[in-house]
Each structure stands twice: as C-alpha cells, then as structure tokens.
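ARCHIVE CARD
CATEGORY: sequence design from structure
SOURCE FIELD: tokenized fold
FIELD CONTENT:
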C-alpha cells in the first residue's frame, strides 16, 4: 500500500525538551481548547509573535486579554479592541480566522476530510470592522497557511484550504 502524502508532511519538525510538568500542562490546555498539542504550541507561539510585532496588540496581551486570545475563538470584544487600535492591519481578524480555521481543520481530520471552508462574512457580521481590515486579514491568513504548505484559495470572503 502506498503512503499518501499530505502538505503537512513537508513541514519542519523540531524536537523539544520540556521542563518537568510542562508537557502535561500543554496537554490539558490543548484538550480544553480542542486542539492537538502541536496546534496549541504553535498557536501560543503565534500569539507571542503578534505581541512582539505590534505594540498595540502587545499592550492587550496581558491578564484576561492574553487568556482570551488563547482560547479557540477570539471574542469579538477583544478582536474589536485590537482592530480599533490597529486600523487596517487585519491582525486581530487574522488571529480570529486562524483560530477558526485550526478548529475546522481539526474537525475535518477526525472525519477524514481534506478540505475546509470558512465564511468570514458570518464571522465578522457583528464586528465593527472595515472592508480594508478584512482584506488585510485575508491576505495575512493566505500567506500564513500558504507558507505552512497548505493550498489556500480566497473566494468572495471565503477561505478555502486543502490539506
């Protein structure tokens, strides 16, 4: 039987040593957030990179705001605050879209699907965001998943990812 290749097979792999107890902590958090341990680690790294690259986002990444960003769905109130402080950057929306996409991918893998579609209009309909912010977020998401080896298509505000 021939092994089927997936885009994720070509991603970099990195061995990591955890301090005592950290593996269990990551496992608990990943279960609570509905992610694999790998997705939890990657998500937490991505959040820290966003904070490093954007001082307005960094100022919100303390206390409750940090905890809210680390759950699978970024609350509209937090996304709105970050978006308001970072007009046209799309960072908050990109974070929201990435979290939703990761959840969809995890669910799709469980049932054997290799393609997901996220309707960003449904996600943003109750948020005070401009079209320019949505466009910027879509571009950030497209680049992020494309760089990770996924096949990404943006069609009328929908993000379609094959893996």
């Amino acid at each position: 039987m021939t092994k089927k290749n997936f885009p994720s097979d070509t991603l970099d792999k990195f061995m990591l040593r955890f301090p005592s107890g950290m593996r269990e902590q990551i496992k608990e958090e990943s279960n609570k957030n509905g992610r694999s341990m790998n997705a939890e680690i990657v998500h937490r790294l991505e959040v820290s990179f966003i904070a490093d690259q954007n001082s307005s986002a960094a100022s919100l990444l303390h206390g409750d705001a940090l905890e809210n960003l680390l759950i699978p769905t970024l609350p509209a109130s937090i996304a709105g605050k970050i978006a308001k402080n970072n007009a046209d950057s799309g960072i908050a929306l990109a974070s929201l879209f990435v979290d939703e996409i990761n959840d969809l991918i995890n669910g799709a893998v469980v049932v054997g699907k290799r393609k997901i579609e996220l309707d960003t209009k449904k996600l943003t309909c109750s948020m005070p965001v401009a079209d320019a912010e949505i466009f910027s977020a879509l571009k950030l998401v497209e680049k992020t998943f494309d760089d990770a080896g996924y096949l990404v298509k943006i069609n009328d505000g929908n993000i379609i990812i094959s893996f």
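CARD ANNOTATION: The chain has eight helices and three strands. The CA atoms of residues 83 and 124 lie 12 Å apart.
SHELF: design records, drawer C
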